[in-house]
Amino acid sequence: MNFERDGSTHFGYQQVPEQDKTRRVGEVFRSVAGKYDVMNDFMSAGMHRLWKRFAIERANLRPGERVLDVAGGSGDIAAACAKKVLAGGKSGEVWLTDINAAMLNVGRDRLLAQGQVLPLAQCDAERLPFADSYFDCVTVAFGLRNMTHKERALAEMCRVLRAGGRLLVLEFSKVWHPLKGAYDAYSFNVLPKLGKWI
Asked: According to the 3-state scheme, what is the secondary structure of the chain?
């Protein structure tokens, strides 16, 4: 359900004013930035790494291409893309972006620790500071759900993507109906407690 027409949107399963969602999402990611990947490993039993690896393989990245990682936070997607795009000393580009400074700092530090120096931009996915048709590939992994105006963000990602380029959106979808009860119980009762504990 889309509540954006009346100035409100969703945050989890609540309807909240748009500006309140932006603030709440920011607070969540500031509070978990240092342990974001540990939390994901724990709560997904490491599956998020397999899903990301699958998405990167589907991207079919080639040396010398330009890649934009939107809402890239901790930098794992950008790091994996850089290994493919910058292979053999090619002059490709991989940009790591996030709206949240704390997450972007974690990603920057992780990349530097791996010996990767990539360009960074703290920016809103709904207003990307890049030229039209600049990138060969745009990725967003588990970030679209946190964007207030998803249609605007997707339009911006398409704007900066060259004709014939690839947009990869890795996100949760609807749960198969027979598993919905167990999934909801886990999501509403177990995950919040695990998140607070971690």
From this structure: CCCHHHCEEEECCEEEEHHHHHHHHHHHHHHHHHHHHHHHHHHHCCHHHHHHHHHHHHHCCCCCCEEEEECCCCCHHHHHHHHHHCHHHCCCEEEEEECCHHHHHHHHHHHHHCCCCCCEEECCCCCCCCCCCCEEEEEEECCHHHCCCHHHHHHHHHHHEEEEEEEEEECCCCCCHHHHHHHHHHHHHHHHHHHHHC
Q: Is 6 exposed, middle or buried (0-12, 13-18, 19+ CB in 10 A)?
A: exposed
Separation of alpha carbons 192 and 68, rounded Å: 31
The predicted model scores a pTM of 0.78
**Consecutive 10-residue averages of pLDDT for the chain (198 residues):** 53 62 60 62 73 92 97 93 90 94 92 95 96 98 88 97 96 76 71 64
**In degrees, to the nearest 5, what angle opens at C-alpha 107 toward C-alphas 155 and 55?**
55
| Torsion angles phi and psi, residue 118, rounded to 5 | -115, 150
